[in-house]
Structure formats: structure tokens, C-alpha cells
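Chapter summary example: a protein plus nicotinamide-adenine-dinucleotide.
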Amino acid sequence: MKTISVNLPGRSYPIYIGTELLGNAKLFEPHIRNKKVLVVTNSTIEPLYARPVVDAISSVADVDTFVIPDGEIHKNLDTISLIFDHMIGTACDRNTTVVALGGGVVGDISGFVAACYQRGVPFIQIPTTLLAQVDSSVGGKTGVNHKLGKNMIGAFYQPQCVIADTNTLNSLPDRELKAGLAEIIKYGAIRDAAFFSWLESEIGSLLDRNPESLAHAIERSCQNKSEVVEEDEREAGMRAILNFGHTFGHAIETWLGYETWLHGEAVAAGMVIAADLSAKLDLLDQTESNRIKQLIEKTGLPTRPPTGMKSKDFLELMKLDKKVQSGKMRLILLTKIGKAVISSEFSHAELEHVLNSSTAD
Ligand code: NAD
Ligand code: GLY
């Protein structure tokens, strides 16, 4: 097992990465303060992975399980409300630990529940998708979508620990694996050129699920993420680079009504647009922009927005992006592979031009 620390004042925590971790009671014990635990999972993951987790926690606490419906479309306040009803109805108190067992959707929902329930209860992340193991379970962003905008309601709330059991990836559909690779490519693009080159040469073995390659990719990603979060936990500045491709990606997800495309797929297409814009502005060499597109293509991820989505749709939806400050749009752009900047130094015409060419039939 490998442990990566996220060091934050008063709320540091470990990320455990390895195999056979779900049923390891010793891992849970130091992170459960009291005798009551609520495992939140979904209807797909519960039959696959709840048993070992519940058994392990049972040796240190009383465990209850709450199963939510599967899907991004349920990442909303209605689901939050169902969980609160259950928690209040079963007399969960301030020391009840909420355990998120699942992908990013379960993690974001459960984290927000933990942040709000009685003004905050302890929280553990057990990510079971590649995307959740490399990104969403780390760093404390929690929340839900609104029909008008992605992740519009939420809180920063750090977990007690993250337990990433890579064995869970064995049951993950290929499409979900690729969606996780999108966020892994992101880290290389924004701050780790050597990792990006490694990904270019190892993408085949990652797609073949070579365990060593996957473990390396997860560790490198968590290391990158924890360094960014340590520097800027609440996104006062540089943390925003983790949103490379996301402003465009979130617009795609909202336009599609949080159905059809996976988050990682939308981010992949978004990264290509962001790289294109960086090249158009002469910030990034065209060859480097091409390398990003080629790696995304080789991964089998989309490099263009969904059919029918137009530049005006992007521009309308992007107004709601959380990086907009005083009405000014800010985007994450690249100056080279491995170096991202937060910029509002582009004209409406330049943005529209790039969106027009990426949405052209
Ligand atoms: P997801 O949670 O919807 O999981 C994808 C699918 O895989 C679901 O159907 C799920 O039930 C299933 N699944 C999960 N684990 C499985 C397993 N081991 N075997 C088989 N099936 C499994 O999607 P995701 O890609 O994990 O997460 C996407 C979400 O994460 C989005 O809502 C996105 O906004 C959010 N996100 C949050 C952050 C953050 O910092 N909080 C970062 C990135 C993404
Ligand atoms: N996924 C973006 C962030 O954690 O900041």
C-alpha cells in the first residue's frame, strides 16, 4: 500500500492506495471517532462492494447503509434531502461518520451531506472509479448540480481519509476507465510534463488495465492534486488550474442535461478546446496542442463537442462558470505542456472563433 498525505492546517489526511483495502478494519479504525457510521453508496456499487466495507467497519462501529439511485442525474438536492431524511429518522448525531462508497457522484453528494448535517460530521471517501480515485475523492470539493449549472451548490469539506482500493477498478466498464484517464491526462497537461510524456508512451497499457501502470498513474495524479490543494485549498488562485477543460466540459454536461456524456468525456473535449484556444492566442505551440489532442484521441475520448452544440450554447452556459469574476470570464490555458495559467486575456472574438471551429460540422 502507498500512502500520500494531504497536508492542511488542522485537517491533514492520508490517501491510501493499494489492493485488498476495502475489508481492512485496521485502516478504518483510526479514522472513526465514534460508534455510528453511515455508508452511502448507490444501487450499482452496493451489491459489488458494500459487504467487505460494512464487515470491516462493523468490527469498530455500528454501521447502517443508505443506497441512492445511480447516475449524475441524481446528483441534486432531492437526493441530498433523501439522505437527510434517513439520517434524522435514524437519529444520526454529530459524531456519525459518513462513508462515501462509490464514484465521484456518490462522493460529491455524501461529502456535501457530511459538510451540512448538523453543521458538519466526519467523512471518509472510498472511491471506486478511476476518476474518483485520481480526482474527486481528494481535495474536499463536495456538492450537487442545479438544472441551470453544474456543481452550483456545494462546500469545501475535507475527508478524514481516502481509501482507494485499485481492485475495484476490475469491475469498472471501459468507458468509465477512459473517463478517469481524462482527469489523469489533465494533471500531465497542467503541471507535470514528465508524467504527460509517460502517459503518451503508456496509454496502451493503461487501457489494457496493467495494474502497475494504473497504480503509478493514480499515485502521480493524487500527488499532483494534493500539492495543488495544499497550496490553495479553497481556490483563491492556483487551484483553478485543476479545472483545465472544465469550463467547456461543464457547459457540455449542462447542455446535455447531465445525461449521455460522462464527466470525463466532456472534460476531454473541453481540454482540446482549451488547448486550441491557447494555441490560437500564441501561448502554446501548435505541436503541443496537437499532442494533447492526439493523446485524448488515442485514449478513445471525444475531441469535439456533441453534435448539435453550437458556440452560442457554450457562450451562454459559460457565463455561469464559477471562475467568472465581476462578469469577466477566466479560463485555464496552457503556455506549454506542464504549465497552466489562469487567464482572461482573450477577446470574445478569439473565443468564439475557436468554439466555431470546434463545433463546425
Ligand atoms: P460516477 O460516480 O457516476 O460513476 C460512474 C459509473 O460507474 C456509475 O454508474 C457508478 O455506479 C459506476 N461504478 C462506480 N464504481 C464502479 C465499479 N468499481 N465497478 C463498476 N461500476 C462502478 O462517475 P465518476 O466519473 O466517478 O464521477 C463523476 C462525478 O465526479 C461528476 O459529478 C463530477 O462533477 C465529479 N467530480 C468531482 C470532483 C471533485 O473535486 N469533487 C472532481 C472531478 C469530478
Ligand atoms: N476537480 C477540481 C478541483 O478539485 O479543484
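Key point: The longest helix spans residues 211-231.
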